[in-house]
Request: fold
Amino acid sequence: MTVFEGMSCAAAAADIPLPGSATRVTGWLCVEQPGAWGRDVLGDEVLGADITAELAARTKAARVRPTLIRRPGRNEFTGARTVLLAATRPQGSWCERLEIADLKELLDLDLHLLNGPAPGLGAPVTDPTILVCAHGKRDQCCALLGRPIAARLSAEYPDRVWECSHTGGHRFAPAMVILPTGLTYGRLSPDAALRVVSDAHRNLVPLTGFRGRSCYTPVEQVAEIAVRQHLSSYGEPSAGRSDDDQLDADALTVVAVGDALPDTAAASSDTASASYAGAATVAHRDGRRWLVTARTIAYAPRQASCGAAPKPATAVVPDELRPLF
Reply:
């Protein structure tokens, strides 16, 4: 028995830091599927047995994440399905929208094109698209915590908000992803979610609930967020402020990643060395750079999903931020 027994996975994870927890995804295939979903997006053949195996193979080969979407509170099927294609890369994010009448049309799409510039397969989507995980069959926290957020956002932005299937990290529910930037958030209240989306429409990056940008690894996510927090703490325009010149989504870019133990860490204890997670160099568009080292810290075992058995929990956290200019 643990102190977390009987808790939801979101409650059990309340002490685990959010930065570095965004699932790494650079290509998205979002398919409208009204009504109930199975536990697995493709494994349960929700889209039909005749295309599921082939679509699963193609998304895996192209490194694209298949995602089901539906409008909050509206599950009727009109005969036409919205399909969103998106690439979440620094300086090269894009999103396109098209409609299909038959799910077999998904097999006509060259998903490898999601690894490059916008291919023109659909109409460009210029406003942020908001995905809120509401995948109750995957974890009850996503449904209980995600659906109210999706409903609140949809009331303000009816054409830009979708409930979506599992995005990874339901213990950080409610979970929200903004396309095409890939900005990923968790543990947002309805009011905080509204502020995040409002800022996203100005291409800004609020730090409240920010888990990381999906194009980056956990170490890279932690490094970027550490620099944003550093600049904000020194009064420089940054996320969460309303200044016209605050840092936008592409103001910072992770330009280099190192796996080797830096000199400062190598000289430390064996315990510290064992927890070393990596290092990343973050560049500002004005030329400044910072080296951020990160370490992995362990937490008491607890359930990663509601009703699951406890298992070890870890998080990547910043260790040192060093200016390189």
